[in-house]
Structure formats: structure tokens, C-alpha cells
Write a structure and sequence with these properties.
heterodimer; A: Alpha-Beta Plaits; three-stranded antiparallel sheet; B: alpha/beta; N-terminal domain of TfIIb; Dimethylsulfoxide Reductase, domain 2; Barwin-like endoglucanases; binds iron/sulfur cluster
Chain lengths: ~120, ~850
């Protein structure tokens, strides 16, 4: 079953905890990441229904280095990024189960690594 | 709805996280389940699993079984090992070998250090006929204030003069605690379920319907014992936001209403909100009828403060004020999260009182999902009370109080008045300060307003002891004796700040360092042996007494109990029982020790904080009757009695600071200093001046950043990453530009607390501490009613780009070698009397050798050189 990480990024605050937790877990050097935060905004929409509303979105992206915390997960623990996510917006599991969690109530992204088990 | 607390709890593999164990072996590591509490860290204590090997901290993880943080950690605790194991961290006590500022030290033993201190005090204070009041004891924030440093000051050194250095107007937290104590009698915090062990599952708890985030960025600051991300859970459970902040934050972008008010005008807005609520009759009539006093007087007073009136002052739209006020008032559960900005304005004390009125008139007090009233867990209340209790009464009577500098004010705060302390240093009146003890505080880098002025006044101190985990700029500049302190990873301690009570268990070793607690004992046994032999001869005795009495007095021979006479009074009063609720809860089972607490998992919630509607249940008043802990037993919406006693006008009115008044009314001044400089907003990487040694934190946040608007960037030709000078009449500093398209073009925002542990320590560099210090531009002695609140977050300045030609003299050179930016300071006056500092005048440039600064024009890549990183291989 393919494992994945679901990010309810509507609520990602850009706190960097996932990035640092992962760096520690994988022992990555300066400038290297297993998960890296990306940012959109802030800007104010001028057009359409969203006119006068703000955009400010964070989304962390899994890199090639991500192992889905395979060793860690085997011991029954959560992936380091998921365990430490301050906004409580990351979930780990089988992709089918995670996909079922997505209920359209907020913006979500489902990511997988290349590791299956 | 994705957030489901029960699902989270059910999903934890409890064996994998060793439920029920506090210490175990795992993959060659010893793992300890405990809590952290700075240094380094913050105001909070998150549950952690510390991984150690051979006495060294190797790894820190969050503990998913901890109900406070649920395993979620911010990057600071995740990176704790880098701070704890920082190679240049001092290992032994040291005495100064060269001149001050040369950074030459000789390592000495603790015995020699303590003996030197004791001898110096005996010869130069006691035998010289001076009193111990001529010792000033300085603490930082977090771990130190709540328990240890005031206790050390009073019980070991015998001085009443304890507090922040150069921090005019007690501009942190005290205004909020006192402003609410005046009207409500207790302290309100947002109810994000944090008082319940079962948290979001608690059957009584409901998330706030509307949360007002006012003058803070709680996600980053985690201030005052409140973990900001708890609010994020509330958002996921449906809470809506109003954000009141001159700058757009991520929370502001999510809010239904963002009110970007002009810095320092929060009271005008609060009065207008009250105006809307009272005139539109949105108040909670039943709550007011039953529990409040002076509503009619308040309503009549705020009738003049219309949204249109406030709109002009705050420079926001009147309709926005109306709509947002209704949004809060109509919520069935409204909660206000307030921040440091409340304490850094000249109408601070009235602002705090007025915003607590907003909570009260809307009935948002002590109900689920509102602002709940909290006290320290189990009534364990050390801190300033202990300084009062153990400092001899005749010495305490000489405490430096607010009336010495602000004649109509009355001292009602435990801390020595910061401006009275400034004046004693600067003028020797009413007596000179001979000795400076600084513990866990890096004043000249961080909290001291008018940093150059504070440097000048500390320069001539006769004797200085700095105790800290790190060799700070403050230590290099002044210390005669340096005492190495333990970090949170090494110390055995406890904390109460609301709830739960938490234990920190030391897991690693650091050479000769002592914890704050061990230092209290060592110094106490040396200087006050009679008391310490009797009460606190060992760490075990100290820890037990913390839990049993909170350092109050229980006399076993007579069976009598005493506690301190009051927040700012000397001596003790007899009480029925000095024991804490913790003592009573555990005495029969005999399981009330520190070790028991550690082994139970390190935390214990108390019932008081977890109980709603305490005012109905007679839990707030000493006599056990329903009501509030105020003179009338009701919430006093106009605090005639308490503010009256404190010499503060009970009816709130907005006032502007000196600089704001000039900026608004004096075109010439505004042309010279066109920007309002907001400052001190937190970042995820740092807690005040901490964490700058840590490679990972600097990877994410290498340089101090000044935000400028897109319009300003265009006008001044500024690109992201350009170094900018910020300058006003008091001095200048430089930071790196970051263009913020959402920022009001009239404002800039600068960071605080920067120093560069990788830079040169000796004068004039001081780890480049003054180069980027925004407090080079702030001033002291300007405060508002009650002597409370300095407008340090809303100063005025101009900006210009750093060029090779305008780098010299550097702020460090000016402050440490050239007698400072300003020469003619008169004690008690905020601004110097000489010509205002101007980069083009007044400083004799010939005497300065051009000192090239590391990385002035760098882009950050040179950090790799600093840390010896190899990249791109
Ligand atoms: S799952 Fe593990 S390896 Fe992948 S990003 Fe998260 S912490 Fe890094
Ligand atoms: S830890 Fe969570 S909230 Fe923080 S940046 Fe990562 S995904 Fe976002
Ligand atoms: S620094 Fe962060 S993780 Fe550590 S105690 Fe504070 S909030 Fe918690």
C-alpha cells in the first residue's frame, strides 16, 4: 500500500517545524531538505469574487530526500514532520485512507514519496 | 472537518511512545519524558522526549502523549541540541582578566567566584556603610521572573531593587496583569481548552466563536504561557478571526476583519468599540446586571468616542470599526488574545483596563470559549513576593519606586521602577548603584530601551556579575565575574504559569554550569547562611519548599504561617496557612515530591483553572462569597477604587506619545523622520536574543530584517536584501530590507534582539550587538498614567541605504568608544539636551579607524564561511 502525507494546507501556518524535524530525522546539512515550505502571497485580489480578500498560502513540498520516515514508521511512530506539525495540518497513512479524509471543507494536498511498502 | 482530537489520540501507538514510563532505553539512547523551560526556549513548556547518550543531548522530539502541546514542537525545541552543545558555551566560572570589553578571562572555581562576590559586597557595601539596596539585580523574561531571580535578589543579596534594566514603563505584561486586576481582580486568557487535561474533548469546552487577535502574532511569539497554535486548532473547529495589527500577519489574512490601525492608537479603537457596543445595545445585559458595576458611568464616558473619532486617530475606516465591534459583541463566545503591543504605549494601563471592559460588557468572562480567569496552578506563587518576604524590611523601604521619577504615581508593582533605576544609575540619586547582577538577561542587546544610554550608565558600575548560559554582549561589556548557567536540558526545576504544573528533568551535563536554582542555593549559603541552612540547604529542600509553600513561611515550632505583605510592600503578614494546594492535595499520600511529579510524567493540572464561572461559585474572593476579587465584588468597569489608589485616572482617554504628537503635528519633524517604526515582532527561529548561535536557526533567518512597503522601496531604490540604516535623533542601526507589499507606506518594521555570536566579542564589536539594535533609536523615561508603558514599538525614524561611504562610525564604535550618540543626558528626561544625533554631524570621524564590517554588503552566503559549511559538492 502506498503511504502518503495529507496536508490540510488551509491551516499551514508556515512554522517550519516540519522542515526542521525532517532535517534532524534525516541528518540533512545546511540548505538541504526532505520537505520544504513554499509560499504564495501575501497579496490582495483585485478581481472577481475574491476582490479585496487576501491570499497567503503555505504548502510544504516533499523532496527526493523524503523516505516517508520508513524506519521510524516501522517502530509505530509518526513521521517526524507529521508528529511535530504545529498547525496539526499533516496526516500520514495509506493514500486511500487519506483520500477519504478529504471532504472538500478545506484545501488539501495529498503527496506521496517514491517509497512503497 | 479534518481535525478530530479523538482520532488523533486513538491513532497514537502508545507502546512506541512508552506510555506510563518517564525514562527508557531506545537504540542506544536514554530517552527522558519531560518538559523544557528555557534557556533556550520561550514562555511555554512543551512536552518533550529528550534523547541522550553519555550525558550529551543528541535529539529532542515532541511527546505526543503530552496534553499541553500534543507532541507538536516549534523549531526552537527541535533544534535544542545545537543550543545546548554550542561549542563556545562557557564551561566554568570566569573572572575578568583584561579591561572591560577586552574579552579576556581567567577560569576560576565556583568557590573562588562566590568568595570574590561575598568579599566584594562585604568590603564595598556593608563595611563601606552602604545598604544592600545599592545592588541592582536584573532578570530577563520567562524562567527567571516567575521564581528564581527575584528570590535570589531578596533572599541571597538582600536588595529590593530587582527588575528589568532600562525597560521604561514596565513595558511587558505587567500593564496587562495590573490593568485587568484593577477592574476584574483576576487575569483573563483565551480559552483554547488549555486548562483541561482532556483538552478539545472536554465536555464543557467549546471553541470561541470569534477570536480577536490584538497587538500580537501568537503563532510566533507563544507569549505569556500561551501556545499560539492552540488558536489554530480553534480555527479548524470553526472560530472566526478579527485581527488588530498595523501589519498584516498570516492570521490577519485569514481574518474576517483586519484592522491595520496606526501603531499606538489601540485605546482609541477600544473606546470606539465600547461606544458601538453600548450605543447599539449589544452588551450582555444579564451579565452586567448581575456581575458588573459602573456600567452607566462607562456608557456615558464612551459616548464621546465615536467610530468616526477613532477612525481619524487610528487611520482606519469607521465602518470597519463598527462592523468588527458588532462581530465580536454578537458572538455567543468571544475571546480576545492580546499581546505585548498593549504594554508599549503611553496609555497602556488604561488600554488594558478598557479592553478587559470589552470582555466584561459582552459577558465573555470565565465561560467556555471566552476569556477565562486563571491563577498559578495550585496557588504556587513564588517570584516577586519572595523578594519582599526575605529582603530585610528596612532595606526594602528604600526600594526605587515610581514616585521618585513620576511624582504623581504610586508604586503598585513588585519590580523596582525601571526609570527610578535608570535615574539612580545616572545621577546617584537617591543613592548610587554600586553593583549590577544580571542573570539570564542580555539587556544591552535586547530589552533595554535607549541601549546606548544604558551602556553609558552601566559602564561605570563598580562591580558586575553576569550569570548566563552564554557569553553575551552584556557579559563582555560589563562582567567582572561570569557564572555559567545550565540550559533547560541540564536543570532540575519546575514551573507554574497557570496550568498545568510542570517538572523539568535535567538529562545532560555541561561542565561546571549551575542551574538558576543551584545558584540560588550556593549564593544563599554563602551570603545568608542562617536562612539557607535552615530552609534551603539542598536542591531537594528547595524543590520541596517550592511545591509545599511556594517559599512562603510555615514555622514548625509555632505552627504559624506567613506570606509576603503584598505585591509592593515589605515584610510578611500572618495567614491561616502558608501551604499550597499542591501540598494539601498530596500530603496524605506522601507523593507530593519533585521526583513523584517527574515520574508521573512531569505534569499535573489543577482544578481552579479548569473550572468555569468561578465567580458564581465563590472561588475568586478570599471570603468564599460569589463575585470577583475586587473591592465591590463586581467587575468595576470604571475602576474608581483601584485606579484611584494607584493615582490613575479611572476614566480612560487616548493619548499620543511625544514622537507621535510631533509626527502628527510638526511637518518639519515628519519630513525629517517620515516613518513610524514598529519593532520587535517575533519570528519562529528566535526567542528574543536567544538562539543566534544555532546554525539551523541562522540557516532559516540569517540576518535582521527591516520591512519596508513596496512604495517606499520604489521611492528609495531599495531591493530585497539591501542593508538600510534606520536613524532618528537618538542614534542609528542597520538591518536588511525585505519588501512587504502589504505594509502601510508610512511604516517600517524592524526586528529586535540581534547579536552575532560569530562576530568579534571585544569593543567596539561586542558581537556586533549594537550594529542592528533597534533600541539605539528608542528612549527611556517617557511613560503614561501610573508610570506604565513606554512607546517603544511606535518610534519615528528615517531610512537610507548603507553605502561604503556612510558605514563609519559604526554604532558599536560610537557607543563603546566615542561616548555615544548623545552626550548630554539629564536623568528623568527622555531625550538628550545636546544636538540631535545626525549621521552628518557631531561625531569626529577622524578619530575612528575605518573598521571593515563582516558581511555588510553580503547576501547571506557568507554564513557558509562562518559555519564552515561546504555546499554544492
Ligand atoms: S516523512 Fe520523514 S522523511 Fe519525509 S518529509 Fe516527513 S520527516 Fe522528512
Ligand atoms: S509544520 Fe505544519 S504548519 Fe508548520 S510549516 Fe510544516 S506543514 Fe505548515
Ligand atoms: S520554544 Fe517552542 S517548542 Fe519549545 S517550549 Fe517554547 S513553544 Fe514549545
Amino acid at each position: 500500500m502506498t503511504k502518503g502525507i495529507l496536508i490540510n494546507y488551509e491551516f499551514c501556518t508556515g512554522c517550519h517545524s516540519c522542515e526542521v524535524a525532517c532535517k534532524k530525522e534525516l541528518g540533512l546539512d545546511f540548505g538541504e531538505f526532505g520537505i520544504k515550505l513554499e509560499q504564495v502571497g501575501p497579496y490582495k485580489y483585485q478581481t472577481g469574487d475574491l476582490s479585496e480578500k487576501w491570499e497567503w498560502t503555505y504548502l510544504p513540498v516533499l523532496t527526493k530526500a523524503c523516505t516517508m520516515c520508513e524506519d521510524r514508521v516501522k517502530t509505530g511512530k509518526m513521521p517526524a514532520c507529521v508528529q511535530h506539525c504545529q498547525a496539526w495540518c499533516m496526516y500520514f497513512g495509506d493514500v486511500e485512507d487519506l483520500a477519504r479524509k478529504i471532504d472538500g471543507s478545506s484545501r488539501c494536498a495529498l503527496m506521496t514519496g517514491a517509497v512503497t511498502s | 472537518m479534518l481535525f478530530n482530537y479523538q482520532e488523533f489520540l486513538d491513532g497514537i501507538n502508545r507502546d512506541a511512545y512508552h506510555e506510563g514510563e518517564w525514562q527508557w532505553e531506545e537504540d542506544g539512547y536514554t530517552v527522558t519524558r519531560t518538559y523544557t523551560y528555557s534557556a533556550p526556549g520561550c514562555h511555554d513548556s512543551c512536552g518533550v522526549l529528550m534523547y541522550t547518550k553519555n550525558g550529551k543531548l543528541e535529539r529532542v522530539e515532541g511527546d505526543p502523549l503530552d496534553p499541553c502541546a500534543n507532541g507538536r514542537l516549534c523549531m526552537r525545541c527541535l533544534n535544542l541540541p545545537e543550543g545546548v552543545n554550542y561549542e563556545q558555551r562557557p564551561k566554568h566560572p570566569m573572572k575578568r582578566a583584561g579591561k572591560r570589553g577586552e574579552n579576556k578571562w581567567t577560569e576560576i572555581s565556583w568557590e573562588e567566584a562566590l568568595e570574590t562576590i561575598a568579599t566584594w559586597i562585604r568590603v564595598n557595601i556593608d563595611e563601606a556603610g552602604l545598604g544592600r539596596e545599592s545592588i541592582f539585580v536584573n532578570h530577563g523574561t520567562g524562567r527567571n521572573i516567575s521564581s528564581w531571580v527575584p528570590f535570589l535578589g531578596g533572599a541571597c543579596l538582600g536588595t529590593p531593587n530587582i527588575g528589568a534594566i532600562g525597560f521604561s514603563g514596565y513595558s511587558c505584561y505587567l500593564p496587562r496583569t495590573c490593568g485587568t486586576a484593577a477592574g476584574i481582580g483576576d487575569f483573563p486568557i483565551v480559552d483554547a481548552s488549555e486548562t483541561h487535561e482532556d483538552r478539545y474533548n472536554n465536555p464543557e469546552w467549546l471553541p470561541p466563536e470569534v477570536i480577536v487577535i490584538w497587538g500580537c502574532e501568537p503563532l510566533k511569539s507563544n507569549a505569556d504561557g500561551f501556545l499560539g497554535h492552540w488558536l489554530n486548532v480553534c480555527l479548524q473547529m470553526g472560530s472566526k478571526l478579527v485581527v488588530i495589527d498595523p501589519q498584516l500577519t498570516w492570521l490577519g489574512a485569514k481574518a474576517d476583519f483586519w484592522l491595520p490601525l496606526r501603531p499606538g492608537t489601540d485605546l482609541a479603537l477600544a473606546l470606539a468599540w465600547l461606544n458601538v457596543i453600548t450605543t447599539e445595545e449589544l452588551e450582555d445585559k444579564e451579565f452586567i446586571e448581575l456581575w458588573c458595576a459602573y456600567y452607566d458611568e462607562l456608557k456615558e464616558h464612551v459616548a464621546q468616542f465615536t467610530p468616526e473619532w477613532a477612525a481619524e486617530i487610528c487611520q482606519i475606516d469607521a465602518e470597519l470599526i463598527r462592523k468588527s465591534a458588532r462581530f465580536y459583541a454578537k458572538a455567543s463566545r468571544g475571546a480576545i488574545q492580546w499581546g505585548l503591543a498593549f504594554d508599549t504605549q503611553v496609555d497602556s494601563i488604561q488600554l488594558c483596563q478598557t479592553v478587559s471592559n470589552l470582555m466584561s460588557v459582552c459577558g465573555n468572562i470565565d465561560k467556555p470559549g471566552t476569556n477565562i480567569l486563571v491563577r498559578n496552578g495550585f496557588e504556587i506563587n513564588p517570584g516577586y513576593a519572595t523578594a519582599q518576604l526575605y529582603c530585610p524590611e528596612e532595606t526594602f523601604a528604600k526600594k526605587l519606586t515610581v514616585d521618585l521619577v513620576h511624582p504623581n504615581c504610586v508604586q503598585f508593582i513588585g519590580m523596582a521602577d525601571c526609570d527610578a533605576v535608570n535615574r539612580a544609575f545616572e545621577s546617584g540619586r537617591p543613592y548610587p548603584i554600586k553593583m549590577f547582577w544580571s542573570q539570564g538577561s542580555n539587556g544591552i542587546t535586547c530589552s533595554a530601551t535607549a541601549s546606548g544610554r544604558v551602556f553609558k550608565m552601566l559602564q561605570n558600575i563598580e562591580f558586575c556579575v553576569v550569570a548566563d548560559p552564554y557569553l553575551t554582549p552584556t557579559a563582555v561589556a560589563f562582567a567582572d565575574i561570569f557564572l555559567p548557567l545550565k540550559t533547560t536540558a541540564e536543570r532540575d526545576s519546575m514551573r507554574v504559569w497557570w496550568t498545568p504544573l510542570r517538572a523539568m528533568k535535567g538529562v545532560s551535563e555541561w561542565y561546571d554550569a549551575k542551574s538558576d536554582e543551584e545558584l540560588v542555593i550556593a549564593l544563599g549559603l554563602k551570603l545568608n547562611p542562617e536562612l539557607f541552612q535552615k530552609r534551603w540547604p539542598t536542591m531537594d529542600a528547595l524543590k520541596q519548599d517550592y511545591l509545599d509553600t511556594g517559599f512562603n513561611i510555615y514555622d514548625e515550632q509555632t505552627g504559624k504561617s506567613y506570606r509576603s505583605a503584598g505585591r509592593s510592600k515589605a515584610g510578611r503578614i500572618e495567614v491561616a496557612d502558608a501551604h499550597t494546594n499542591y501540598y494539601h492535595k498530596h500530603k496524605d499520600n506522601g507523593d507530593g515530591t519533585y521526583d513523584n511529579l517527574v515520574q508521573r510524567g512531569g505534569y499535573e493540572y489543577d482544578d481552579f483553572c479548569a473550572t468555569y464561572r468561578k465567580y458564581e461559585k465563590g472561588m475568586l474572593r478570599p471570603d468564599g462569597s460569589p463575585g470577583f476579587a475586587t473591592p465591590t465584588g463586581r467587575i468595576e468597569l470604571v475602576p474608581f477604587i483601584t485606579f484611584g489608589a494607584w493615582g490613575i485616572e479611572p476614566y480612560a482617554t487616548h493619548r499620543e506619545s511625544i514622537s507621535a504628537t510631533r509626527w502628527l503635528n510638526d511637518a518639519e519633524y515628519k519630513a525629517k523622520y517620515p516613518f513610524i517604526c514598529i519593532n520587535g515582532t517575533r519570528s519562529y527561529e528566535f526567542f528574543h536574543s536567544e538562539n543566534r548561535q544555532q546554525k539551523t536557526m541562522r540557516e532559516f533567518h540569517p540576518w535582521p530584517l527591516v520591512k519596508v512597503s513596496s512604495q517606499t522601496a520604489k521611492e528609495y531604490g531599495i531591493s530585497d536584501g539591501d542593508w538600510l540604516w534606520l536613524e532618528n535623533s537618538e542614534g542609528r542601526c542597520r538591518q536588511k530590507a525585505v519588501i512587504d507589499p502589504t505594509l502601510n507606506p508610512n511604516y517600517v518594521h524592524a526586528e529586535h534582539g540581534w547579536w552575532f555570536p560569530e562576530a568579534k566579542p571585544e569593543f567596539p564589536h561586542l558581537f556586533d550587538s549594537f550594529e542592528c539594535n533597534i533600541n539605539n533609536l528608542t528612549h527611556s523615561y517617557e511613560t503614561g498614567p501610573g508610570g506604565i508603558g513606554n512607546p517603544l514599538k511606535s518610534i519615528c525614524c528615517r531610512i537610507y541605504k548603507c553605502t561604503k561611504e556612510n558605514m563609519s562610525p559604526t554604532p558599536g564604535e560610537v557607543i563603546t568608544k566615542l561616548n555615544g550618540y548623545r552626550n548630554n543626558f539629564i536623568a528623568c528626561e527622555p531625550f538628550a539636551r545636546d544636538l540631535a544625533y545626525d549621521s552628518t554631524c557631531n561625531i569626529n570621524k577622524d578619530v575612528i579607524k575605518d573598521t571593515p564590517l563582516a558581511d555588510v554588503f553580503g547576501d547571506g552566503s557568507s554564513l557558509d564561511t562562518i559555519y564552515g559549511n561546504k555546499k554544492g559538492e
